[in-house]
Design brief:
The complex is a heterodimer of chains A (792) and B (290). With 792 residues, chain A is an alpha+beta fold. Helices cover 28% and strands 26% of the residues of chain A. Chain A has 20 helices and 32 strands. Chain B has 3 domains: 47 residues, Uridine Diphospho-n-acetylenolpyruvylglucosamine Reductase, domain 2 (2-Layer Sandwich); 112 residues, Uridine Diphospho-n-acetylenolpyruvylglucosamine Reductase, domain 3, CATH 3.30.465.10; 106 residues, Enolase-like, domain 1 (2-Layer Sandwich), CATH 3.30.390.50. In chain B, 37% of the residues lie in helices and 25% in strands. Chain B is built from 12 helices and 14 strands. In chain B, the strands form 4 sheets. Chain B has a 5-stranded antiparallel beta sheet with strand order 4-5-10-6-7. Chain B has a 4-stranded antiparallel beta sheet with strand order 11-12-13-14. In chain B, helix 10 runs antiparallel to helix 11. The chains are: A alpha+beta (792), B alpha+beta (290). At the A-B interface, helix 4 and helix 20 of A face helix 12 of B. The complex binds flavin-adenine dinucleotide. The site of flavin-adenine dinucleotide has 29 residues of chain B, from strand 2, helix 6, helix 7, helix 8 and strand 10.
Amino acid sequence: MEALTPKLVGARVKRLEDRRLLTGQGSYVDDFRPPGLLHAAFLRSPHAHARIVRLDPAAARALPGVAAVATGAEIARLTRPVRALSKMKEYRVTSFPPLALGKVRFAGEAVAAVVAASRYVAEDGLDRILVDYEPLPAVSHMEAAMGAGAALLHEETGSNLLLAREFATGDVDSAIAGAAVVVRERFRFRRHTAVCLENRGCLAEYHEGTGLLTLRSATQCPGLVRDILADLLDLPEHRIRVIAADVGGGFGAKSSLYPEEITVAALALWLRRPVKWISDRREDLLATSQAWDEIVEAELALGADGTIVGLRAEVTADVGAYSIYPWTAAIEPVQTISFLPGPYRVPHYRAHARGVTTCKAPMGPYRGVGRPVAAFVMEGLMDRAARLLGLDPTELRLRNFIRPEDFPYKSPSGIVWDRAGFTETMLRARETLGYEAARAEQAQARAEGRWIGVGFASYVELTGIGSAIPVSPGMPVATGTEAATVRVDPSGTVTAIFGIASHGQGLETSLAQVVAEEMGLPLEHVRVVHGDTALSPYGTGTYASRSAVLAGGAGILAGRAVREKAFTIAAHLLEADPADLVVNGGRVAVRGTPDRGVTFREIANAAYSGARRLPRGMEPGLEATRFYDPYFGTASSATHAAIVEVDRETYEVTIRRYVVVEDCGRIINPLIVEGQVHGGVVQGAGAALLEEVVYDGAGQLLTGTLMDYLVPAATLVPTMEVHHVETPSPTALGGFRGMGEGGTIGAPAAIANAVADALSPLGIEVSELPITPERLFRAMPDSGGADRGSRA
Amino acid sequence: MKPAPFEYHVPTTVEEALAHLRHYGGEAKVLAGGQSLMPLLNFRLSRPAALVDINRIGALSYIEEENGTLRLGALTRQRAIERSDVVRSRLPLLTEATALVGHLPIRTRGTIGGSLAHADPSAEYPAVLTALEGQVVARGAGGERILRPEEFFRTYLTTTLGPDEILTEVRLPIPPPGSGWAFEEFSRRHGDFALVGIAVLLLVEGTRCAKARLVAAGAGPVPARLRGAEEILERDGLTEQSFEAAAARAAELVEPDSDIHASAAFRRHLTRVFTLRALRKAARRIHGGH
Ligand SMILES: Cc1cc2nc3c(=O)[nH]c(=O)nc-3n(C[C@H](O)[C@H](O)[C@H](O)COP(=O)(O)OP(=O)(O)OC[C@H]3O[C@@H](n4cnc5c(N)ncnc54)[C@H](O)[C@@H]3O)c2cc1C
């Protein structure tokens, strides 16, 4: 049996969900207004670190329209505190109460919740809650936080150091001591936050008759949220339904469990009324998980011919006030040292990571997790080494890439790279850019006094992670499987139900392509359902570039099972041998005699008609549920190349050209892959040039509006040239590799290297991101700026 | 981010609006385009007892030319100014500056009176008013007061407008034909408030610079007239050397603050860069050049 339908996997199919989303037909949390709805607002701490001496909600409770005011103590009676566990040896578990208990640890932490007839009244209620805080010293700098005199944030741990981890292979100290050249740098990647078009938000309803609690949430992980809510609220799992209908962007920041989700669910149970909370932009900037914020001291040692001999690094991460569930505070720093060696052969390696708690919003996953920092550091070191050795930076990379004959390659941090086209992506990027010509133009521009630079970055990431490795280091939550149910109704149309949740990636389209192709059906016969724990088989959600690989694999298995049964039924109806059947456009026919066929509709109808029309002994019905576990995971890689110009007077950086050559294995839909690259590169460019969460020394957020936290606007975004190298995964079903995060991994490094290249005649290195005009101004030798130096 | 409760009035005449303002004795706020006031209300940083919405007072929206002066009703939308042919032909400096105010949706609602009354020192209009030596008309119970920029802007977000006064008109003298002008600014992203903005007006008589007006936005608590730099141009004429000297002087004269977007030192540097760019551009435009 085989499918003759025109290939759907690999086709540039326009996204099926876009019509709905672009014409305002999407349904987001805030679109749901059940009868009797109440609105919640959260009182947020104005202090970075303080003891709550007294909290008096009486005046708020007395306000007409206020249904309830919940304090930390009351919510603590209804739920358990969240504790993100880890099997890592050096990890200190801490509690994250849904509403502050006795103490606040960051400015913006939720202290109380008012539930009222409208959000307006709820906010009026917030005004009337009296809180006496006894301010404690703010812990705002990660390095100072580890010092002797620092205030302790979590009394239960006895230290602000929440975790430490080391990876070591070989003898790096000797390798560095004996190396021909060593480059060193202290890199600083500043704090970021995801700015989703749709803010966070949730709506909880408790149905007394059925005992069912439904939580609609703008989350990436409905399954994960359902599991933990059952535990925290002490409800049976089958009485909790979590729905993430349309979600307006997540970028990792909506993949964690949030205090507001727990509180709103608890309030709905308590009040027996639907309760909704929609975060406003200020709350999103204050209390949504933040990212990156690391100091990396790193040394790269090479032989005289440019061969890498060793890499040593110390990573310190500011993980904020709480260890976020389920990923824990380890996710960013440990990912950084896991991926620091990049796509290179690094024989001797030792890297140590620490996570330090401070009075800031908790650190969580953000598109790229650890790898944007890792690539910035490693690629920055590679360029420094190339300059020192007088080698072309692309040549140095080509000499050190893991080669085809090395696969599968076990990285010094223990990750296995199945296979990837590192060399091909670099060669194609050079060719696309017209590398020689670009260098010639640069020389010409330099002669005219312009600052033009060319920068490259190559990286590899682990995507589609199976059960062999937890997605976040040491995390005891199972993230290695996903499932699909493929259900054919009597009319022959297909509903494919997944536990993942699409929040802008176009998964309704790519998964429909995968299932339709496997079943030999036209695309429009398959409807994808996702993001609803009551409808889907067990799954956790969408994160870590996993859904194409895990849900795609499950979709293939379930689609295949259904197709096989359909063929058996067709063979019975046609009195033919199943092996002689072919399917084309939803019709199954005998090979060579197209007239002898049945439509999928007839097959489905037969499947539900009972014994009369089915082969003897066959169970009626036409559906299958299959689980898929890719076990290890797949390597996704790319080379990014940027040409930038730095204005000699304003120090503004303009991206002139941007080239991406990526390898995500077998491509399901090039349009979607390119869209994901485009979006990721824009976020990476924001990281390189604009975005920075700033807290002052007292722990107050200075970037609390979008006039201060600068996300990229259209004028920053260059036309991107995206090309593909397809190295199908040898292990994952379908040959797919995950690719949702890559753009954000490569772009900061490529842009930083391009700026450093532009400024190399001045001897200025880029060691801090974002590269703001202010930082470049201060780095200029003749700036007269406050602190002169040669670092930007 | 929901405002605290307030009462709401929608008068259709200035007299009616003034009566409401008087009634609340300083506790009411005028609502024009809302582009600055609404965020303040939503953050509950401003908690007026009442809003007096002047958007239905049609008589406050006009652009008229009279005796060498352009008169703009306070409620005239920034977008209307940007698209006005009269403004483009008589006061292209205002057209150029307007295009730099925020983004299109903001200019569609935002008004010239609102921008001036809000008195953000980084905003474009206060700098233009100052460079053109225009006037604003404030109407209150006691009648009208006509105020020059230095009488109007007091400090950050503060003017001498009384709580029961309404800004009704902006008067901008039209420079003689053949003048040079430019508005140049630097912002981190297109449409953001400027880190530094420079308004330039150059009036020439023969080869002499009869009058130079140089004003910096974002360089102190009020739009900064850079008199010392103007004097260099009026004394030494319009040469590349005098431009450079004026730009250097401008950088000394400004008193910018440091914030997360730029240090005072960088703003000084930008003042020099953009003064020079603006002067060169203005000089090219003298006698209709581009
Ligand atoms: C994202 C964003 C970007 C922006 N960028 C810029 C920029 O780059 N440059 C810039 O200049 N501006 C910018 N603005 C501000 C914008 O120009 C505002 O429109 C302007 O500052 C206020 O005008 P308004 O009509 O909206 O006034 P409102 O917001 O309604 O009022 C502002 C203040 O003026 C008072 N007021 C208004 N009209 C009168 C009147 N006739 N008499 C007495 N008092 C009055 C109000 O009581 C209030 O105190 C930006 C705004 C936003 C939201």
